[in-house]
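Hi everyone,

Forwarding the result from last night's run.
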Amino acid sequence: MAFDIEMIKKVYANMTTRVDAARQIVGRPLTLTEKILYNHLWEGMPSKAFTRGKDYVDFAPDRVACQDATAQMALLQFMHAGKPKVAVPTTVHCDHLIQAKVDATTDLARAKTQSSEVFDFLSSVSNKYGIGFWKPGAGIIHQVVLENYAFPGGMMIGTDSHTVNAGGLGMVAIGVGGADAVDVMSGMAWELKFPKLIGVKLTGKLSGWTAPKDVILKVAGILTVKGGTGAIVEYFGEGATAMSCTGKGTICNMGAEIGATTSTFGYDESMDRYLRSTDRADVADAANQIKSYLTGDPEVYAEPEKYFDQVIEINLSELEPHLNGPFTPDLATPISKMKEEAIKNNWPLQIEVGLIGSCTNSSYEDIARSASLAKQVAEKNLKTKAQFTITPGSEQVRYTIERDGFIDTFDKIGATVFANACGPCIGMWDREGAEKEERNTIVHSFNRNFSKRADGNPNTLAFVGSPELVTALAIAGDLSFNPLTDTLINEDGMEVKLDEPTGNELPPRGFAVEDAGFQAPAADGSSVQVQVSPTSERLQLLAPFQPWDRKNITGAKLLIKAFGKCTTDHISMAGPWLRFRGHLDNISNNMLIGAINAFNHKANSVKNQLTGEYDAVPAVQRAYKAAGIPSIVVGDHNYGEGSSREHAAMEPRFLGVKAVLVKSFARIHETNLKKQGMLALTFANEADYDKIQEDDTINFTNLTDFAPGVPLTLEFTHADGTTDIIIANHTYNEGQIGWFVAGSALNLIAAEAK
């Protein structure tokens, strides 16, 4: 039986009447996305039609999920909110703090020792506040959610950008910062600008070497890393229904890389099969009773141009396997063109490591298809040329693939199986030799390939592909190898060709697991004590941020003018810094250390206007804070791309940065800044970015009139005494201005709880 089945039945009981009402109000057929959104309005029954990309709307998500790195700050904030128990089903998953180095057993044991303080804290907080707790080694949050909690037509939020993975089971699942999660856990409405809609029509059928991963790699190439911002992507068509449920999850998972709010698919037989295979026949039976409500109306898919803001069509029968990268997930190259592109760009052709798994591609089907290629190494007398690793997504997947012989197959080609955790995908990979910073190529089936993301080496070129393509390339050890057409020379000196990958969608003997790693919370947690040592380096209780003094910000200094791509990895790095995610003061020592200073094109080197000397960004900002001087950060397009980590907003807030002024924001980061009581502003004229100089002092002239739709005016005074007046736009509504006035959204929640 499924977790929270009564909650799911309630969602379905409301859905028919609410969707029917919405259809009448909107006056046309509805997409699946609209059906789910209108069924989850905070007000209950729909009473008005909302304008896409304009109206802020209050929603009531069904559940919340948190991973351990972000859960620490989210739960510290929840404790501050003063609530006795979470208001909606919530889970915590320990997956980010396990470093990949030796093998699963060794690495997991080391992590349990090194991070015992954090794991104990998360376990006790979960026990106290009614939160389901998934222990270290249980698996990656998104795979565990897909296996246990995701359900068609549901709405969930999660403190990780790849929460969107659950769209593979027909959910609207959205990545958020911890403050948003605290809202929902506290029983409050969750606010989202009503999204625009992008429809992706999939015709034909996948076959041969082409995999679901290639769909999103293709879409990323079309839309770029910001083309989906403010939109939900809805996939439909014969190609969608012919695809496995876990394949749909892969596509939705990497939808975070195009900036999309989320992605989703309509309910179909593949979801029915997956639900039943994961012991949730009760959910499948309930969904089947209202299945016409769990997909878009037929008229929508017949004439999608009338109902979506943008429509993309991809013929899966003609789609070619892709490799995306390096350094950005939207640089899409068909495998037939990779040799040409690699030579033209001087990318190292020798592949050092191939890595498969992660939350993006660790399904039974993924592993089975990769294993079918690994098996051919012995059968065709080949030798694997690159190192090869597997990161299972959950203990259930790992146990099942071990039972079915796949791990033994990988062992025979010298592969390493890492723990059921994020590992190399998020930079938790202690890669031997990475400190030498040698230029090299790796291929993986993860979702992101930003500079330094996997191993901390800025000279590692990472390319993203399907697990089967990654496996083939690891066997060949050559980036220019095209398994569709090329041959390999085996140990006997003979030319051999790899056969197309094959694999079952679901395990023929069903999934199996001895201990899934779940800990249920106490029925009454009121007596549970949560201890945080005042001398801890890993955990720190939060103090509320100061409210706005209702005066104009004046005398502010420019901290940094960031040049080019500035992701959340640049603003608040992961990797070894993950250990400080529960300690705001210590984690703030990584603030913007990866951002490139536009004035000297160096990372972590900015001018301290008090001394005239160059120093690390956090050190300069701490000097400004100690002197009581406010500061601002300036950035380029899609600032805050990538992770949902709210530390990228909390760190500048904690250290005294007052505003972030950029050409454009990634959705989650803009919201995180607002939640923490900061000013998230965009240039009215993007060319004004070029006017900002290194020694600038900034005065706000009309902040005292802060109001929705009214631009703010900033005066930039340069070192020579000249000034530039810059107009800054914002998207704050009345409620969000209330967060700024109070000092943070959390301050308002805490005040209401008293």
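The longest strand covers residues 196-203.

Cheers,
N.
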